[in-house]
Amino acid sequence: MTVTALVLAGSRLGEDDPVARFRGVANKALAPVAGVPMLERVVTCLARTPRIGGIVVSGADQAAVTALPALAELVQAGRLTVMASTPSPAMSTAAAFDAFGSPLLVTTADHALLTVAMVEHMLDATPDWADASAGLASSEVIKAAFPQSKRTYLRFADGAWSGCNLFFLRSNASRSVVVYWQRLEAERKHPLRMLRLISPWLLIKQRLGLLTLRAALDGIGRRTAARLAVVEMPMAEAAVDVDKVDDLHLAEELITLRH
Predict the structure, then answer these.
(1) Which helix (H) or strand (E) holds 52?
(2) Quick check: is 259 in a domain?
(3) Of the candidates 40, 178, 197, 204, which lies 20 to 30 Å from 66 by C-alpha distance?
(4) Where is each MobA-like NTP transferase domain found (predicted)?
């Protein structure tokens, strides 16, 4: 099964991104990490992954993308498409899904440490029954590799997990998950409305430490009529995205150790 890959490379209107500011670029996706723009690192990794067919970049300026020789070659070869920017990641994902359909792998341009092995694991470990899956790394895996790194965890009764900016929309039924994401994103400034969309009961159980990860997925699945799965990522680097200058330094350190 050939999979289309979507790279979210946009930024919110008026957003003052610390990494972009530190590197002196207009878009964080173009910030160099160990001398190579993050967007180029992500796209060329996807291009080397056997099961990835077409690659779509959303949110980056076409001229900026084609100014990078490695990406210009992919555009000329018909392998890479640049989509117009949208106001939000969910809207970009919906536009790509409508244009290219499923299966669609979604990642972000700031996933500077992305490897072929991570992408292959995400695709291979998604169960056949799942309509959509999300890559997560456990707190144990991350803390063993990066004991000093501060990460944000989703805490459940059966463990704490960090997102890996890897999502696999495996079937057409996963379109409803994207629509649900758009609804949540539209209400991000209205906590009570978001609460109603997510389910007050699930949030109460989570606050009490009674909600398991599987129960949370099943709850969202009921609201989207989609079968949802988690792919546990065994590589701690999968959970490192470059959101802060400290993340940038960590990514550069890890890239240097690879060579």
Answers:
(1) strand 52-58
(2) no
(3) 178
(4) 20-132
